[in-house]
């Protein structure tokens, strides 16, 4: 039997080259910045990412699909993004769609065309797509609608963009990836026919024209080929070379499939773990985690919403905040800021700082309430309920603060905020024990107060 001996690698100048502290310091001191939604989505992450992308080299999407919707306003022009990272507006920034994203190719090219007409130029040289990302086919979208119809009154209010069925295909290991499309086309064709036949058996009413679809995807393969690469290797190489990487989470923590208000959630991990699995980045490369919090709370679709307002104040927030979904055009439900929700998502995500958006929407209110605790059966609870039955029955304990009753839209310095508005920000910081780094007071990228 061969003997096994412990041996150390050869030393160079008295230091092991494989375990050089200098080498590891070089790799780990360039941390990735992450931007995550801290509520039920629509917090204004796109605007924050657009701002931070101005000082970044690479902006990445790590999960979700075109069920997400981010709006960025630049020089009065409104750009809507669903699959593209919001940072793609920055001409000096490379945009990466990571392996954790599910991609509807017709939707991607439609999105590119629409934003190109609005003035987005040069994206061809700045967009990189992972070969490991899964493809959303049109039949996935049909299935999404059929599954919702089957649930009847128990429907979840999905966007019907095919996101759930595609992640289901991925989990059952019969999904099809971008790399499959660009490989041996006969193998792609076999996989496509098999997947389509499986869904046709489950849903006989499914409308499928397989030959037309295969021809169409042959065209997409040629279009997308120049943009596709191994994004894991690309990102690690660029980080090692000192490039600044920004990650944009789609959806938000309360829509996370594990930690959100299940089953009224999306089908991916839109909390911090999705950054690791959706891009191939280890936790030790993650630095700042910026949680984006709307100054009140909104959500689209069904599910419990403890601080929801069904009165004139709720209507005011909806109208002043233009609370209509970018993707679905559905009116968003509105309510007071729920700090129990934000504290819970901060526990999961480890926010190092916050961006408070849409503070200006509260400008006309004489008093403002903030949810600070939940009671169940008359007793305070110290946890966030996983049961939707429990969450539907919690009683919210509020803190009431005076409003400022004047406009904040032109404020650009923390010291010039009305005292009551500053107090509102401090109340949030004190409750969460997390600093507010940025405050949004308008639509444009210039409507940001740096609170540092």
UniProtKB/TrEMBL annotation:
- Give the Enzyme Commission number: 6.3.4.4
Entry's SMART domains? Adenylsucc_synt (SM00788)
**How the cofactor binds, per note?**
Binds 1 Mg(2+) ion per subunit.
UniProt: GTP binding residues:
41-47, 69-71, 332, 358-360, 440-442
Q: Does the keyword field hold Endoplasmic reticulum? A: no
Positions bound to IMP: 42-45, 67-70, 159, 173, 251, 266, 330
* A Pfam family: Adenylsucc_synt
Its annotated compartments are: Cytoplasm
The protein's required cofactors: Mg(2+)
Per the record, the major location class is cytoplasm
Which pathway does it operate in? Purine metabolism; AMP biosynthesis via de novo pathway; AMP from IMP: step 1/2
- Give the catalysed reaction(s), semicolon-separated: IMP + L-aspartate + GTP = N(6)-(1,2-dicarboxyethyl)-AMP + GDP + phosphate + 2 H(+)
Kindly report, in one word, the top-level EC class recorded for this enzyme: ligase
Q: Which residues form the active site?
A: 42, 70, 170
**Any single Gene Ontology cellular-component annotation:** cytoplasm
What CDD domains does this protein map onto? AdSS
NCBIfam families associated with the record: PRK01117.1, purA
- PANTHER family (UniProt xref): ADENYLOSUCCINATE SYNTHETASE
Role played? Plays an important role in the de novo pathway of purine nucleotide biosynthesis. Plays an important role in the de novo pathway and in the salvage pathway of purine nucleotide biosynthesis. Catalyzes the first commited step in the biosynthesis of AMP from IMP.
Q: Which family does it belong to?
A: Belongs to the adenylosuccinate synthetase family.
Q: How does it assemble?
A: Homodimer.
Protein name (record)? Adenylosuccinate synthetase
């Amino acid at each position: 039997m061969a003997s096994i001996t412990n041996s150390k690698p050869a030393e160079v100048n008295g230091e092991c080259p494989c375990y050089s502290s200098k080498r590891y310091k070089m790799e780990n001191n360039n941390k990735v910045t992450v931007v995550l939604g801290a509520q039920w989505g629509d917090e204004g992450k796109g605007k924050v990412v657009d701002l931070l992308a101005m000082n970044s080299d690479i902006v990445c999407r790590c999960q979700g699909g075109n069920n997400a919707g981010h709006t960025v306003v630049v020089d009065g022009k409104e750009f809507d993004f669903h699959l593209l990272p919001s940072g793609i507006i920055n001409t000096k920034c490379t945009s990466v769609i990571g392996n954790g994203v599910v991609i509807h190719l017709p939707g991607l090219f439609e999105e590119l065309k629409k934003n190109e007409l609005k003035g987005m130029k040069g994206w061809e040289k700045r967009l990189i797509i992972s070969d490991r990302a899964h493809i959303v086919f049109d039949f996935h979208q049909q299935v999404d609608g059929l599954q919702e119809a089957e649930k009847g009154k128990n429907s979840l209010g999905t966007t019907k963009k095919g996101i759930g069925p595609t992640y289901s295909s991925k989990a059952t290991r019969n999904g099809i990836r971008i790399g499959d499309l660009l490989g041996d086309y006969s193998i792609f064709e076999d996989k496509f026919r098999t997947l389509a036949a499986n869904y046709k058996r489950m849903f006989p009413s499914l409308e499928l024209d397989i030959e037309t679809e295969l021809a169409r995807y042959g065209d997409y393969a040629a279009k997308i080929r120049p943009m596709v690469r191994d994004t894991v290797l690309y990102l690690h190489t660029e980080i090692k070379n000192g490039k600044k990487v920004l990650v944009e989470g789609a959806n938000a923590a309360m829509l996370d499939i594990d930690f959100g208000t299940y089953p009224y959630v999306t089908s991916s991990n839109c909390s911090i773990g999705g950054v690791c699995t959706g891009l191939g980045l280890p936790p030790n490369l993650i630095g700042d985690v910026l949680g984006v919090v709307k100054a009140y709370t909104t959500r689209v679709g069904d599910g419990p919403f403890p601080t929801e307002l069904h009165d004139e104040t709720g209507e005011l927030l909806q109208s002043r905040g233009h609370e209509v979904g970018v993707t679905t055009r559905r009116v968003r439900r509105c309510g007071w800021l729920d700090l129990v929700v934000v504290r819970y998502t901060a526990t999961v995500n480890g926010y190092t700082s916050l961006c408070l958006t849409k503070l200006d929407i509260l400008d006309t209110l004489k008093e403002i309430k903030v949810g600070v605790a939940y009671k169940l059966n008359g007793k305070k609870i110290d946890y966030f309920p996983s049961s939707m039955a429990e969450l539907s029955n919690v009683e919210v304990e509020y803190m009431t603060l005076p409003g400022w009753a004047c406009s904040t839209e032109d404020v650009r310095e923390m010291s010039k905020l009305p005292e009551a508005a500053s107090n509102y920000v401090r109340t949030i910081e004190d409750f969460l024990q997390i600093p507010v780094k940025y405050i949004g007071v308008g639509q444009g990228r210039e409507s940001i107060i740096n609170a540092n």
